[in-house]
Amino acid sequence: MALLEIKNIEKYYGNKSSLTKAIDDISFSVEAGEFVAIMGASGSGKTTLLNCVSTIDRVTAGHILLDGTDVTKLKGKALGQFRRDKLGFIFQDFNLLDTLTAYENIALALSVQRRPVRQIDEAVNTIARQLGITDVLQKYPYQMSGGQKQRVASARAVVTEPKLVLADEPTGALDSKSARLLLDRFHYLNREHGATILMVTHDSFTASCASRVLFIKDGKIFNEISRGDDSRKRFFDKIIDVVSLLGGDVSDAL
Fold first, then answer.
1. Is 68 left (phi over 0), alpha (psi -120 to 50) or beta?
2. Fewest CB within a 10 Å sphere: which of 134, 219, 226, 228?
3. Is the dihedral of CA 185, 191, 195, 199 positive or negative?
4. Contact assessment for residue 165 and residue 194, using Cβ atoms and an 8 Å cutoff
5. 205 to each of 37, 74, 154, how far by Cα in Å?
């Protein structure tokens, strides 16, 4: 069953004298429990697409349905509640609050939902164990490594058990070891928690973690490949093949 349905969406920027079409009639769906990556060169529209799904940006035309709700029609308090209850966000620059500890950053998402204190404590400690960050719960962001901060951000994104986790270049600010650790945790969240993940990335290795990859070019879907029974190495090779067809420098995608 489709959890997310993107129906003929378009996004324009500018005015009549200078109009840019960032998204050009894109349609696709994501099943519950799926892990989908979106790839494309800078300016291809992939981040704009993610911003529209996340309700950070509004579509010019078309519809986005998540769990049966047309998010393009939500406004005000209803939109805020939808973001709070249905979505989890993981950003490249972590977006942790510097004045809060890791524990407090994760707990904040639950506090906003007015969960009982005991339930918050149990949920935070459980997800911290699962993501291997129990040793940094009482640390502030400036006391953590990039990998630790990104895992804290991931914990914050999934602790509320959202319908959809949106990740924007989650490994972009990490070294290779931290990136691999984070991707292992993504696999865990997807496999063990059934988290549905939609991730934008320019990195082919990161994309090879997904079960399906959509390639965006000039605001349109250029290609789509599924991993199926392929090994990760074989899927990675297929991704590289498509990246080369896109006309991008393969070295930029590694």
1. left
2. 228
3. positive
4. no
5. 11, 36, 19
Note the residue count of the chain. Answer: 254
At 128, is the secondary structure helix, strand, or coil?
helix
Question: Considering Cα of 40, then 45, then 46, then 47, what sign does the dihedral take?
Answer: positive
DSSP string, 21-65: EEEEEEEEEEETT-EEEEE--TTSSHHHHHHHHTTSS--SEEEEE
As a whole number of Å, the end-to-end CA separation of the chain is 33
**How far apart, in whole angstroms, are the C-alpha atoms of residue 242 and residue 245?**
5
Q: Going along 67-108, which residue ranges are E strands?
A: 69-70, 87-90
Within the chain, what is the greatest distance between any pair of CA atoms?
57
Which distant-in-sequence residues (6+ apart) come within 8 Å of 78 by Cβ?
none
Cα separation of 167 and 209, whole Å? 13
**Domain ranges (residues) in the chain:** 2-253
Q: Determine the 3-state secondary structure of 233 from DSSP.
A: helix
Q: Quick one: tokens of 163?
A: 């319908």
Q: Which amino acid is at 97?
A: L
Q: DSSP characters for 170-185?
A: TTTTS-HHHHHHHHHH
d(CA 251, CA 129): 36
| Amino acid at site 156 | R
Q: State the residue for tokens 């928690």.
A: 193
Q: What is the pLDDT of residues 115-133, one digit of tens each?
A: 999 999 999 999 899 888 9
Average pLDDT, the chain: 90
The correct answer on CATH 3.40.190.170 for the domain covering 2-253 is no
pLDDT in tens, 122-161: 999 998 998 889 999 999 999 999 889 988 998 998 898 8
